[in-house]
What we know:
By secondary structure, the protein is mainly α. Helix content is 58%, strand content 4%. It contains eleven helices and four strands. It has a two-stranded antiparallel sheet. It has a two-stranded antiparallel ribbon with strand order 3-4. Helix 4 (164-175) crosses helix 9 (250-264). The longest helix is centred in the first third of the chain and has 75 residues, at 63-137.
Amino acid sequence: MTLIELPTPRADTRNAVSVQCDAKELACPPTGAPSEPRGGWLLGVPLDDLDAGPVARYEAEELPRVYAQAQTYAEELRRLYIERQATEAELARKVLELERSHEQLLAYATDLGSLNSLLKATYRQTLEALGRAVDRRDGMTGGHCVRVADYSRLLGERILGSRPQELQVLEYGALLHDVGKIAVPDAILRKDGPLTDDEWAVMRQHPALGYEILMGIGFLTDSLPIVLHHHERFDGKGYPDGQRGEDIPIGARIFAAADAFDAMTADRHYRRALSLDEAMGELRRNSGSQFDPEIVAVMESVADALYARRRRE
């Protein structure tokens, strides 16, 4: 018996068919074959009809080339693997560097946050000191500027909502609202009796004088409208500009109610402090004329807490 690989007709030579047969049978033509084909016979079929072509097998001389090519592919794969390992190691190093940088940035941010908080506290303390100095010169004691700043912030939280920057602006303006009185002569500022018309004209200049004193200090820029307009009235009969209604800056409207409440509930050398009911009665009577009605309504909701705080001092 002989093993022969046969290419199938009209097919890839790789699809060779292995056939076991007797060598004599392979070479024998079928009975009644007309003539001997040029290529001989195979299984009774002329080889010329099988379209045998090149047999699909690698000759012996092809093996070294195939092996060399396989080695080349293996070396290329090894090189790519080594490069990938190096890339992954570099990536891991970069990730580690980024994590360390992130930790440093967090530390810097924490430091900056602490410094910013310290700076804000320093600003606040400086402004409080200046406000207290003005209170002393105006004959008031007991921290009027600090209380009215706290009252203004509390009202601001109810009216403006949680807006830290705007609430800080409100506090700064409240602390420095009367800083212009520094430029008012003592003879007018500390006069025991009623002021003359000319003296009132000088006194009414203190909002504009305060504005001029603070103008140019960057972190107080947004607080200047409160300093300038804290004596405006809702009906337009205030000073210095006679603004009315919502033309008056919201900070100045909030401050006006807080300032009046604190002034009425504090002892003065010419009168005793008013009770909570008396103070709120005055605010209600002047709602819509001197004060913004919406702010007076908010004051109604916090008056008890403000008055209790005032009594504890």
